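Retro notes (design track)

What went well: tokenization of the new backbones is finally stable.
What didn't: we kept losing track of which sequence belonged to which structure.
Fix going forward: every design gets posted as structure first, then sequence, in one message. First example under the new rule, 314 residues:
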């Protein structure tokens, strides 16, 4: 019976295991649906509390904020500005009474006019070390605004150590770092780049993101970030890399492990469901259980609101 199956089920899944990404926009005056991600929207600051309240109402464990600024420049100054889009969004959410967990993405790609995750020189080469101070400044500004967890996704070598040192030096010793420690140079990110307006204007990100052909390298990436002070580690994308999620759980059994169910994975399901080719509810829950079965403690997913409702329905 279904009751017996639930009684002996190995992996569990609850709304509290899910993290909802939210796109906050300075360039949109109204809520705008993202064409390649049906059911996902870009939210102007004053309306962000609506989506946050929806997440809170169904018991989603946390929200993850991404910013879409109006102003971009080579240094991505708005990423760390006290009146930046993410900083304003956090304050708006807190002023609206939200007591849940706010995670913020720490990267420069949405804020630079060239769309890369760090600073670049005249030849377009990523300046890893010069980018670290910008990322640290951004993390501090998020903590000052009220973020609970900062999540550096730029994949710059040494970014976790730089951010940990900066947070500690400014009194934010209790702000955890969720490191995008294993982030592949993946084609599954395509819809996200439309959503966040963060595509590179030249080149690509293969110089600082992982080769999809590599699995063992993931352990080295995790190890480096854990040594630098990461409090949580991540595998992104998740679905095509469940072997890496499993390896990560086995190699780091004591570390909270997060899997990111990314935009391309989401959009494929939505497109197939819209054509009647599969049962959306069944495949979403099966996918989320797969992340948990592989060893993920938390799953970042654009399906979070629907999945939370379906889980509550039983």
């Amino acid at each position: 019976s279904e009751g017996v199956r639930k009684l002996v089920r190995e992996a569990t899944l609850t709304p509290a295991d899910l993290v909802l990404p939210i796109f906050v926009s300075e360039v949109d005056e109204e809520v705008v649906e993202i064409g390649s991600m049906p059911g996902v929207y870009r939210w102007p600051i004053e309306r962000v509390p609506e989506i946050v309240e929806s997440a809170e109402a169904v018991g989603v464990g946390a929200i993850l904020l991404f910013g879409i600024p109006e102003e971009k420049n080579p240094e991505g100054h708005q990423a760390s500005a006290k009146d930046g889009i993410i900083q304003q969004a956090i304050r708006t959410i807190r002023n609206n009474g939200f007591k849940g967990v706010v995670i913020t993405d720490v990267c420069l790609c949405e804020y630079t006019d060239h769309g890369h995750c760090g600073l670049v020189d005249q030849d377009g080469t990523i300046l890893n070390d010069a980018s670290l101070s910008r990322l640290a400044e951004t993390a501090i500004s998020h903590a000052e605004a009220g973020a609970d967890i900062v999540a550096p996704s730029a994949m710059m070598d040494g970014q976790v150590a730089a951010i940990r040192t900066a947070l500690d030096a400014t009194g934010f010793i209790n702000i955890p770092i969720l490191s995008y420690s294993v982030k592949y140079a993946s084609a599954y990110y395509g819809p996200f780049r439309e959503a966040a307006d963060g595509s590179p204007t030249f080149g690509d990100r293969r110089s600082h993101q992982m080769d999809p052909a590599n699995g063992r390298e993931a352990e080295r990436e995790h190890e480096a970030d854990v040594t630098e002070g990461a409090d949580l580690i991540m595998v992104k994308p998740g679905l095509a890399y469940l072997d890496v999620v499993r390896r990560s759980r086995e190699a780091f059994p004591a570390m909270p492990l997060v899997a990111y169910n990314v935009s391309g994975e989401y959009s494929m399901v939505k497109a197939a469901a819209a054509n009647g080719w599969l049962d959306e509810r069944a495949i979403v829950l099966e996918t989320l259980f797969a992340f948990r079965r592989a060893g993920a403690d938390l799953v970042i997913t654009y399906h979070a609101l629907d999945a939370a409702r379906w889980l509550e329905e039983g």
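Added context from the reviewer: Residues 128-145 form the longest helix (18 residues).
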